[in-house]
Amino acid sequence: MTHNNGYDVVVVGGGTAGLSAALVLGRSRRRVLVVDAGEPRNAPAAHMQGYLSRDGMPPAEFLAEGRRELARYGVRVVRGAVTEVLPDGRGEFGARLSDGRAVHARRVVVATGLVDEAPAVPGVAERWGRDVLHCPYCHGWEVRDRPFGVLAPEPFTSHQALLVTQWSKDVTLFLHTVREVPDVEWERLAAAGVSVVEGEVAGLEVTDDRLTGVRLADGRVFPRSVLFVAARPVPRDGLLTALGAGTRETPFGPYPAVDETGRTTVPGVWAVGNATGPAEQVINAASAGYRAGVTINAELVMADIDARAARRRAGVFTPEAEAAVAQVVAGGREHGLVG
User: Fold this and answer.
1) What is the DSSP secondary structure assignment for residue 186, as one 8-state letter?
2) Does the keyword Transit peptide apply (predicted)?
3) What are 61-74's pLDDT values in tens digits?
């Protein structure tokens, strides 16, 4: 392993979860490489909400500040993708980057997030994160008291339509392709004051770059200034799948199986943030990255101590020789020669 391509940890993904893990590891004097494809889930949003002390901050600005913090600790951040992660047979990993470079990592953190697949309704994808929204906790306050529309999902649930009544009392549920609604759902919608419109949605009405209405296939237009849509969240889990990582079933499909620290079923590999589930908001992702970073550093500390203990038992590394090496390493760190 050379100084140029050998790292304690390679973090795949430079969003909140990945940067948070890298920050903890950098502060723990670890050599860390973050490979960032620049595709955060919240990129379409102008602001992020609900993060104490950073409420309303633009997501790009938040991530830029995170990268500036990492630089203080010598963490290297590069733009690109990791195309392959392969076990090296000794409990560590080789990773190949999209530019062809190969690096070595003792541990890997996968923070590749997910992709929100919006329904194929004309105009929805173009206005995603602006006035076509999926999370009232992320955007509800900013659009409060406006006329809301909600596009019914399949399989049908009234949950989103009922939930957003906390932010506006003018809510219309568009059944779109839903043909049957259980009686209990009709009762709840009526109790919440939600209007229900039958008929397939054909597109959106936009005036001066603002959503003004929802247009049905029969030509009817319903004035609305906000449309909530339940997108299908799809994890970017290709690297984990190739490694044979286990999954768990969720209401949104299979996601990587992880413990409370983000450890996957593949020894030495962690997954954090939206790579592990769609409900991870920015503040949750930061927490998950932190936990993973702490756990990984502790694991590496103990692994190194156990390895030294084994060498001493075997008489390969005497206490005197170990002290001499430690002195050389300390001197190299002081002069920036050792990471």
Assistant:
1) H
2) no
3) 999 999 999 999 99
